[in-house]
Amino acid sequence: MAIEDRRQRERTARRRLITETARSLAEREGWDAVTTRRLSTEIEYSQPVLYKHFGSMEDIVEAVALDGFGELAEALRTARGGSGADELTRVAAAFSEFAAKNPALYDAMFIRSTRLRFAADDTPAPLVRAFGELRGAVATIAGARDVDTLTEVIWAALHGLTMLSRGDRLRPGHDAERIELLVAQFRP
After folding, report:
1. For the residues of 12-64, what is the DSSP string, one character each?
2. Could you report the per-residue pLDDT of 116-161, keeping only the tens digit for each?
3. CA end-to-end span of the chain, whole Å?
4. Is 137 helix (H, G, I), strand (E, B) or coil?
């Protein structure tokens, strides 16, 4: 069993190397620069080795996105346990900060086409956790309103602010003020 355990650890390590390299390359040069040829050159494995771990570039992007949702869930969980502004404001600010610090990762999670789906029976655990952390903060202000629907609306609004800000469509330096105004619209 020790040989099979070692092989599994090596497969896991190669898979992790591929996703980390794809993410790093995307953050440096954009997703258009991430190709199987480029990845195989960067990690010094042949393209067939990449395809042993991932069937397509879309599979690689999905793996990166899943990692991102895990990181986002952790960032939102940390914000929920913080102090200072109310919980939803902290979580909304953490969401915005995560998106700003990780633009290519955010694109993999929310912009690029993937087969990842929210609110489905087969929704992967990292997506459920990320949504759950935001939902937990929204529940603090939901009152009699449907928490899931309210969470979806706030998530959509945060995404809109994120994308408009990234596209230089909003005045710089007013992110915190916009988040506070957004959250204020939903307080009872």
Report:
1. HHHHHHHHHHHHHHHHHH-GGG--HHHHHHHHT--HHHHHHH-SSHHHHHHHH
2. 999 999 999 999 999 999 999 999 999 999 999 999 999 999 999 9
3. 59
4. helix
Q: At 52, list the tokens.
A: 């042993």
Cα–Cα distance for residue pair 61/87, rounded to 1 Å: 31
130 CB burial (10 A radius; 0-12, 13-18, 19+): buried
Asked if residues 80 and 137 have their Cβ atoms less than 8 Å apart, the reply is: yes
What is the signed CA dihedral for 171, 175, 180, 181, rounded to 10 degrees? 20
Residues in the chain, how many?
Answer: 188
| Residue 135, SS3 per DSSP | helix
Helix, strand or coil, per DSSP, at residue 182: helix
